[in-house]
Write a structure and sequence with these properties.
This protein is an alpha+beta fold and about 375 residues long. The protein has ten helices and 18 strands. The protein binds guanosine-5'-triphosphate (GTP), magnesium ion (MG) and zinc ion.
Length: about 375
């Protein structure tokens, strides 16, 4: 967990404290600070790699509007007037809360970022496992509203929902993917915690089957994304929780791949003491296939069928608790890695349907169990207390 006021850049993993603002067209940056002496905010030009220019920028910046109390000193955007030294002309510029390290890649931080204690959850898993789709599904306000119906006093408030009917696309290494940020709020709307769910490209976790250097892959250097994001420092101890995501319907020869993905994760991140969730996606496909129970010698008793989990079921305790137990049971029966991890402390398996595809357009209207892993994670981290 990062203390309120400390940020991790969702893209580059840089840890920083300042409220940094950037305007891309003008290529100028500034830091916003509060002066106790004057009781007011000020904005100073700031060039992270150029102390000289920071000291003598050749212009001054003035805030054109006061900072709202609700922004806790870190608004999403500010409007400033720039006045060149020796000139009386003032030019208005809008600046966005950004990462000082990778500002040139236009890394604008999500709304309300850096204001609350920040918990980091990292998603690992092979390509096409369903990582990005799950992140989209849990940011869907329609799904999240079911939590309110169940009567919980806390709300999850996602920074954005990339939308129904979006095309499925593989996450490119080096990008942020569908990284999701959400604020956990109480009934009065007060923020309690920020949650960063960091998506990664599946290519970071297992090379393609036909990669020429598959046997000698150097994961550590291949995945600089992953390395920066999980590197520990004095203020950041790596992700607070990990999810491994895999598809419930396997392509052939998949089982050794999922183990290699897990071993890669262990090599790249210190999992010691961190909770680990396994999310099997494509529950819809598994239910359609209704596989036989592996322990049934007659092969006629189904492990799961097309009605085992209802679409859009609610989140009341009496629904949630048995449903989570059943998911864990089924996944442990069905999946190598789940069986291997079964019984380890702080491990839990889930079976979800995030979306379905019509052509290659994803539809998120009829999810199954989709918030269960999130509820478990936040409960495990002590943010979302349930019995
Ligand atoms: N039917 C069904 N399709 C799903 C489900 N989850 C994901 N998909 C589809 O599976 C495909 C792969 O999903 P992604 O979310 O892109 O997978 P990813 O793990 O992010 O893959 P990379 O970005 O390549 O690492 C997409 O076409 C999704 O729409 C699900 O629960 N059910
Ligand atoms: Mg992806
Ligand atoms: Zn950055």
């Amino acid at each position: 967990m990062l203390k309120a006021g400390t940020c991790i850049c969702p893209r580059c993993g840089k840890i920083f404290r300042m409220a940094y603002y950037y305007n891309a067209p003008a290529a100028i940056g500034a830091r916003l600070s509060y002066s106790r002496q004057t009781g007011s905010y000020r904005v100073d030009p700031y060039f992270p790699d150029d102390p000289e220019r920071t000291a003598n920028p050749g212009f001054r910046l003035h805030l054109t509007a006061s900072i709202s109390k609700e922004d806790h000193g870190v608004p999403h955007s500010i409007t400033v007037e720039r006045q060149m030294d020796g000139s009386s002309v003032r030019e208005e510029i809008k600046m966005l809360h950004s990462c000082p390290e990778c500002r040139l890649r236009n890394t604008v931080l999500p709304r309300n970022y850096g204001i609350y204690p920040l918990y980091v959850i990292a998603l690992a898993g092979l390509t096409s496992a369903g990582k990005s789709a799950w992140l989209t599904a849990i940011s869907n306000a329609v799904n999240l509203s079911r939590l309110n119906e169940a009567g919980y006093s806390l709300r999850f408030d996602p920074a954005e929902f990339s939308g129904n009917n979006i095309k499925a696309e593989p996450t490119v290494p080096g990008s942020m993917g569908k990284t999701t940020y959400m604020v956990v709020r109480d009934r009065e709307g007060r923020g309690k915690a920020g949650i960063l769910l960091r998506d990664f490209s599946g290519e970071l976790f297992a090379p393609p089957e036909d990669a020429p250097d598959r046997g000698t892959y150097d994961w550590q250097s291949y995945s600089s994304d992953w390395a920066t994001f999980t590197a520990k420092g004095s203020e950041y101890q790596g992700p607070d929780l990990f999810f491994i995501v895999d598809s419930a319907v396997k392509s052939e020869n998949h089982s050794d791949q999922e183990m290699s993905a897990y071993n890669t994760l262990r090599m790249n991140a210190d999992l010691a003491g961190r909770p680990l969730g396994l999310i099997l996606t494509h529950a819809d496909k598994l239910m359609e296939a209704h596989p036989a129970h592996p322990k049934d010698p007659t092969g006629t008793v189904p492990l799961i069928d097309r009605k085992t989990f209802a679409v859009n079921a609610g989140y009341r305790m009496r629904q949630l608790v048995p449903r989570m137990a059943l998911q864990n049971y089924i996944v442990v029966q069905h999946h190598h890695l789940a069986r291997y991890l079964d019984g380890s402390k702080n491990c839990r398996a889930f079976l979800v349907k995030s979306c379905e595809n019509i052509g290659n357009v994803q539809n998120f209207d009829n999810p199954v169990n989709v918030l269960d892993p999130l509820i478990w994670a936040l409960n495990t981290l002590g943010i979302f207390p349930i019995e």
